[in-house]
Amino acid sequence: MTSEPSGLFDLAVIGLGAVGSACLYQALRRGARVIGIDRFDPPHDKGSSHGDTRITRQAIGEGDEYVPLALRSHAIWDELAAATGERLIDRCGFLLIVRGDAENLHHGKLGFHARTVAAARRFNIAHELIDPAEIMYRFPLFHGLKGDEEGYFEPGGGQVFPERCIAVQLGEARRLGADVRTGCEVLSVEPDGSGVAIRTSGGIVRAAKAVVAGGAWMPRLAPSLASRLKIYRQTLHWFPLADPEHAQAAPTWIWNREASPSGQFYGFPSLPGSGEIKCAGEQYDQTCDPDGVRRQVDASESADMFNQHVRGRLRGVGSLATRAAACCYTVAPGSDFIVEHHPESDAVTLVSACSGHGFKHSAGLGEALASQALDNIAHPMLASFDAT
Fold it and tell me: pTM of the entire structure?
């Protein structure tokens, strides 16, 4: 670890995952003197930004306030890809399938399909409404639809590569002169007369402003949020393919059969050369501690995933998982985001939780946070997320 330079940093970013790495990079682009701190060495597999891929969508059924962040994130990833040569986003399309006769729910929002369609129309986002026969004809991976489903297809949606996005943003931040301290645990964040004192395992760091984006560790870093945040263990599963062609040509998808988390699953096209396909569901019945969460995924969990969701719905997918992983969702009431100031000081911005749907917004969110912190002006994209 490097020794602390004299004087204040303009900004300290605590937690360098999806949002923190984006905020750090954007602050450096503005010429600020910035330090980034993380207890691990991101990108890593301890939080929620790992597992090769994350779905991205443009019309956001969780709320219109998320749409500008998603659109701006897409633009930022395109800019970074052009500058670095790294592929960060794949616009393979996004498909939402819901039962036509069932009230559908996703991330705490009833009527998710109708909300998604309304957002697409309001923001002029290209989309199609397609019936079950068309879904199975255009995307042969999907079969077993009953005929009463409704489909929403968004050609500008698809997948992003989380580890790659984080690594590129941290790399660019370092190139621009960021002081990045990994393997450094933050013990407390305390506003003081000159800004913020950050007590770490390597000593005290001082900054004029701080953005705390600690993911599953936010209840400890920001006790004022603890009563509003819950941490849930989620599992990801990769299954082998008998015929990779159908799976490679598929979009990302969310298949919502009933109004409960257990009645839906989501997944991704097969990555070239992998011979496998990734699927996952969500659970909100059991909370966990991020330091004690069970990282191993049992074979029985993968078997349940296959039997409950994959069997009879995805063509040519084998039943024995090739690998699996666990991650943590940090969830706020209503599955919304929280972006608010520390109760004792506007010098500290607390960012959590992204409630399991944050990565698609992270680049735009990081840019808005850097702008707000350094310009001392409330950013319009953040106004809807203050839960205080």
Answer: 0.95
